[in-house]
Amino acid sequence: MIYHFYIIAALLIWSSQGVVVRTSGLPVETLVCYSNLFAMAGQSLILLSPSIRKAIPPLNQFHYIIIYAILVLLNTMAYFIAFEKTSIANAVFTHYIAPVVVAVLAPLVLKEKITPLTIVSLIVATLGLWFILGDISLSELFSSGSAGRNSNRTGILAGLASGVAYALIIIFVKVFSLKYNAYFIVFFQNSFVALSTLPIVFTSVGVRHTPDAGLGSLLIFIMMAIMYSTVAPYLYYSGMTRVEANRAAILGYVEPVGALTFGAVFLSETPQLRSLIGGALILLSGCLVIRGMRAPVSK
Which of 48, 114, 131, 283 is paired with 260 by a 20 to 30 Å CA distance? Predict the structure, then answer.
């Protein structure tokens, strides 16, 4: 049972990302690049361990890890753009199209069985998501409008894109969790994201103003490196070793509830009644999943 709490803890940590993105005043590419650079530098120490070096997979398996790292990059960039362009609630809850995608893919890719309780939990969680997103229409996504509406539309589409990438990440993590060392996977994904976004940061100078890197920015990068790029991924990866992908996806609904709370407390984004109803339904779905979990089978 401890493994699903690892996943919940990781998601609660990640749920505060929107507040950091919105209050930092830094461009998305700068946040993503430098936080992962700091994480890469700190985590490089793990390569000093002989056991970790022995766990590095052979080169003929690296294409799977590279695909996974690309998905992490797409998910992170799209998610942060959503936070920048639209409200915390819109960004997080559009991102959570992921469990629906996972529920469809897991039986096909991972050969996992969909239990009746999983179906009920998914329906309850989706109903909660419908309540929260009740004011977002298709016309808002694809019609032209004012700058504010265009920004909101961009944020919503970015949230949906990050949701699809996140769903594929859940599937990949489930596959990797039994094959590869968690420390190496997290180090590699952070290194890939940092080095991939570094050219974007340099080419964006003069296009998007990047504030001078003072002590405040440095502390933000270090905090993000520790919490979002190190602690949370390790907890999540460890949890996924024993939790089925479709159940982990529904547990993921804890993140939007946490993000909604952080947004209300730190950004004064007061949720409407339908958001509170939706959040309650999402929490209920998570409780149903936890209650229905079987004891983990020993390896």
Answer: 114
